[in-house]
Records
---
Amino acid sequence: MTGATWGLVASTFAASFVEFVEALTIVLAMGVTRGWRSALAGTLAALVALTAFTAAAGYALSTWLPESLLQLVVGTLLLIFGLQWLRKAVLRSSGLKAMHDEEEEYATQTAAARQAARQSRFGIDTFAFVVSFKGVFLEGVEVVFVVITFGLSAANMPAAIGGAAAAGILVLLAGLILHRPLAAIPENALKYGVGLLLASFGAYWAVEGLGVFTHSGESLEWPGGDWAILALIACWLLISRVLVRYLPRLKPQSTHLKPETVR
């Protein structure tokens, strides 16, 4: 595989891994406190809905848009998405935002599950089903977004799907073996790295897509080709480290920050 393909696989793997870890925490909390049948039913229903959503979104984007406009649209969306992740990572690294804590999230979810009233339909606990469905679907939509944007822009859907699938299998196996949240995973560092990758690939494809406004309508070419992605990663990293260093000087730090439970 080429360097660009490895970068594509690594990006979809890392982004998907983070989302799968957060979905696993929610499903574990519901399964342990309310019953695995309801939690797994909600998870399965979310996967079915995600499959339909993926097919519809992928078909619409790949069929209705020319290549350069597709790159512009998905590149811009990916850039915005990546900058959101990078913004949170910078705030966490600078101490201006509390770190995300899967153990704290798990405790919050289990506490809410124990306090909720029990209502069952067809032998399925409604609360566990809805919470599991919502958690898996919302986290899954982000995975689908990353896979589709990366896969279509790079014209390599198999690599994008493979990276996400590998992440999902790894998280699932870890959950089955450990039966607890994957709190030992350096999730905040992963999100920082993913933010850099998403912002870099997004900027790369968005600029290429500006060719839609030229007379030929064909995609623009970056100097150095795919190597420009490394330069973009270095630029975003430099900007983010400068912000991490100087942002605390602009805003007084809180005396105490509780672990973040909601991204």
---
Amino acid sequence: MTKDTLRVAIAGVTGRMGKNLVLSVRESGYALVGGTSRAESPIADVRIASDLSELIADVDVVIDFTHVSTVARHAEIVSEARVAWVLGTTGLSAIDQAAVVVASERAPVVQAANFSPGVTLVERLARQMGAALPAETYDAEIVEMHHRQKVDAPSGTALSIGAAVAAGRGVTLDAVREPAREGHCGARSTGGIGFAALRGGQIVGEHTALFTSAREQIGLTHRAFDRRVFSDGAVMAAAWAAKQAAGLYSMEHVLGLI
């Protein structure tokens, strides 16, 4: 497949991430067929549709950074059309995730909370550190900071990093996740994975995984300076996904790490 033949649709094309995706797709030389949006504000030379079904017959891949309320609908559409789906929407319920898994049985799906190559490597290293550093002696904490407009906490990326640490330790994040601490919350549990979420200014995204023992601390940090790192990574994933068989993939697959 050449750049000239890769046809891309962007779900949520008029949003903050959508506008960056338009730039990334065009700079990569791929064909932007159009995008979905509930907003009336147009983007130059972009076909706008109210529903993904209006575009799906003309595309090879859909890049989707929208809202959890659209996931089940989009999963049904890409599954029926067998079109590749790059999904960056976070905060999915168990039912939403089940719909993604079903879609991946008929279409290639790349799902990630963060499409930065650097974050993908941080998650991989966090898994290795979780395995190497005993939970009994190394307390794991994930600290994240984002712009003041972000509405969810902790971030999907923070949860992914925490899940990677938990996987390295042979447990699930749900089993060891500690809620945000406030007031008289008691002592820290052994083996727990804590989260702290900070908000302010226009910070694109900062994530740090801390492993702290009584004698040392190791920190693993990623800082994003420009949102284009996410949209560029998503377009990289789109080009990769369009060549794959049906299945559920991650950015580690895209980068050739697994």
---
Amino acid sequence: MRCHKCDERAVIRMRQHRLALCRTHYIEWFVQQTQRMIEKYHMFTHEEKVLVAVSGGKDSLALWDVLWQLGYHAEGLYIHLGIDEGIQYSTESERLAREFAEQRGLVLHVINVAQVHGETVPEIARRTRRGRDKPCAVCGLIKRHDMNQAALDLGFNVLATAHNLDDEVAFLFGNVFHWNLEQMRRQSPVLPESPGFARKVKPFCRFSERETAAYSLVRGIAYIEDECPFAEGSKQLLYKDLLNRLEEVEPGAKLRFYLGFLEARDSGQLILPREEEIPLELHPCPRCGQPTTSPGLCAYCRLFESESLGTLGTPVQPK
């Protein structure tokens, strides 16, 4: 298989694009496509500061690398969750993120959940009813809160995450399957900033997981290859598997599904509830100051109100 732009051996073939590229031209194409997505969706400019949420995985480190190559002011944020039971997942992820930043002279901010709250995410999950059944829910709540707070505290205009096409279509599939119209309304490459919330962007939303992995490999980026232990049994992994099987027999199906959804929604063909039609009264949490619909503390702060707190502040009954 030869590169479509030169006669060198191709390192990747992308059937949905009918394109095969060598190492040099693939890196060039990947970086250019990222810049196109940034411009197409008006994500940010070179005058703005971007905080990149990094996990030590292939997607987030690839995103940081691309933004660095494109000359953006991009710093990293790593949240050490304390998921170290068995494979030292969080410790190894942080090591790789630090190594990546040091090699490029970039700034990495680190939040250690155990140092801030006195307990790790697995410990928090085990003492909450929701966390016992779905530890990813507690983990996601903590990460979303801390990423947003860090962006605001550090003075960043934009918070960038490395959600790829596989992540987006799995999320969309789940929302369509369960008719979660509110989540479908909010799913977008860009969530505009608002009082108490940083602007959130997804520059990799049109790259498949295979494409981001290929970029990391040809760029020589060292990343953690293990899946997070909390991901085991996740419905998102099930949805990804189903969609990958469809992609095998119908190349480009995932990209058409995602882009078709965005086009239908933005053109008005798909009628979803507008934000003003959903009565949400936001006010600052009295403890952390972030916006919440709760009459008291936000869901994040209620996790740490007492060691006996369960889901959204509901006491867990001792067994």
---
Amino acid sequence: MKTQVAVLVTEPRPAARRRVPLLTTVGASLGLLVLLTIVIGPWLIGQDPYAIDIGNRFAGPGGAHWLGTDELGRDVASRIAYGARATALIAVGAVAIATAIAIPLGVLTGFLGGWVDLVVTRVVDLFFAIPSLLVAIGVIGLFGASVTTTVLALGLSYWPFYTRLIRSAVVGLRSRPNVDAARVLGASRLRVIRTEILTGLVPLVLVQTTVLLGFAILDEAALGFLGLGVQPPQASWGSRLAESREFILVHPELALVAGVPIVLAVFAMNLLSDSLRDRLDAKRTG
């Protein structure tokens, strides 16, 4: 008489599979807060960020001025909201330039190899000898300080690291079985790059773009603090931080209000990049 044994396989509950990690929730919430500040913040506050009222200097929060006024009587909350737009424009533009340079160069050097790889790698090594912030300062010194120059300067300072990262990923992708199979089937180099290499780079590009956005926000603040970024009276988070420097001992709240958005935005980008990396790695492993 045979005994039959029933094996019960317990599958994860749907709720457990849909559970969102805490860090992902925090990062998404902070990112949404920054996005809302950029999109509807100026309209919601309803104050002119450039209106000067000397008789109302250093007013405390309340009434029409949610975060008080600065050394010229301008509304601090409005300048933070309008500054978020300038900072976001610079960050997105710089990352777009770096991505537009890094992906073609990284794919070509990693896929073709040979003298192309040698030349581009040597140029990248040359840029690595100079700190990225010094490259940005040099570009601004040549063309002058403005929003456009800051975007260009940061974009040119990010592409070497990004190119090397893409190249390393492509070197690993080109030895995969699916790439070899496409070659055996007679696919051209362009088709292999388009269908096999670029699709494999999507997770890396998403994660690295998010990381670079955080770096760009931080570097824009550094350049603005040094007086090399957005120029007054135009508002940005970096320039707002520089303006509050002279009054940090008597009115430290101005520097605090200017620095907190930078910290929160960079923290949000770091959390989102970590969450993206974990999720994409889990899908690839699965």
